[in-house]
Specification:
2 strands; globular; alpha+beta; 3 helices
């Protein structure tokens, strides 16, 4: 299927991760439950591409920044959990298509 299948806003305080939140994780139990449900919804759709829009990167008044590297990776070292890591492949074909359409 092509086109947008789902749009979601996902507040994500670091304490939703068990190794960060420890005893404080219960304070955000509803957020954890909502994120788990969102995860199930995304898995059920089995999308080819997931587009993430985040305020945690470069921000411009008159432009949008698009990361166009091959992979994105990070960890939660700043929150005391360096073992929590993520690495994902970037859909470079999709990004090339966006850049072409933006010209």
């Amino acid at each position: 299927m092509s086109g947008i299948q789902l749009v979601a806003l996902a507040p994500h305080p670091p304490i939703i991760i068990a190794s960060v939140g420890r005893g404080d994780r219960e304070k955000v139990a509803r957020t954890v439950t909502a994120m788990e449900e969102l995860s199930r919804e995304i898995a059920a759709l089995d999308p080819d591409t997931i587009v993430l829009i985040s305020p945690h990167g470069p921000i411009f008044q008159d432009a949008a920044a698009i990361f166009d590297g091959e992979t994105l990776e990070g960890d939660l070292s700043n929150f005391g959990a360096p073992g929590e890591k993520v690495k994902v492949q970037v859909d470079t074909e999709f990004i090339d298509h966006l850049k072409e359409k933006a010209r």
